[in-house]
Amino acid sequence: MSGARRSSSDGRSSAESADESASEHVSATNRTRAENIPAIERASGREWSAWVSLFEAQGAPTLTHPEIAKIARAALTDDLRNPEWWAQAIAIAYEQHAGLRVPGQSSTGTYRVSASRTLPLDRDAAIEAWATAHGSRSEHLGHAPTEPRTSRTEKRSFWRFGLEGAGKVEVSATPKGEKVVLAVSQEGLADGEGIEAWRAHWKSLLAAL
């Protein structure tokens, strides 16, 4: 964790860097992607500046991610849907704001990127469409995929594979009404320099479906 926190002075992908002028509640040093802030404020009923004050009053810059998430959870009401999830999201947003975590960086110091598309299919058909269109690819941006694995839970269907030298990929299909959200999540990137290239790659494959 400490290695991830020291990385705040590293170079960042310009598209992943925060838009510092996007929210009046965010300081000029904020590195949180601006679109996260309004959602956090709506869900929590607390302005972002108040969240920042709360964290800093409890010494959050010196704390670990679980400790920061615990502060966030204690400040959320139990009637909020998925309060644990929101506590994690708020903690991550603060870590990005304070320069403790680069957007796209996990608590282990590696990086992740994701993209999604809503399709007029059921979840299994969406995974099948992905497999038909892209399952036989021999490479993704020069990285060879491992043998894919499929699985399904009560709520989602999955297509997972590794990428040699570029982490692992999960394609998930989650029902949304009569449609499905097909999402691609890549984890384990060694640095953030290629995040936007990977995002564009996954978006182009989703767009081809």
Write the H/E string, N to C.
Answer: HHHHHEHEEEEH
Rg is 18 Å
- Detail the poorly predicted runs: 1-31
Helical residues, percent:
25-40%
Shape: globular
- Head-to-tail CA distance between termini: 38 Å
Strand order of the largest sheet: 1-5-4-3-2
Task: Tally the beta strands.
Answer: 5
What value does the average pLDDT take?
A: 81
Q: Helical stretch count? A: 7
SS-based class: alpha+beta
Q: Which band does the percent of strand residues land in?
A: 15-25%
Largest sheet, described in full?
5 strands, antiparallel
What is the gist of this entry?
This protein is 35% helix and 19% strand. With 209 residues, the chain is an alpha+beta fold.
Give an overview of the whole structure.
The protein is an alpha+beta fold. 35% of the residues lie in helices and 19% in strands. The chain contains seven helices and five strands, in the order αααααβαββββα. The protein has a five-stranded antiparallel β-sheet, with helices on one face. β3 (157-162) and β4 (168-176) form a beta hairpin. α4 (65-74) crosses α5. The longest helix is centred in the middle third of the chain and has 15 residues, at 83-97. It is globular, with a radius of gyration of 18 Å. The N and C termini lie far apart (38 Å). Residues 1-31 have low confidence and may be disordered.
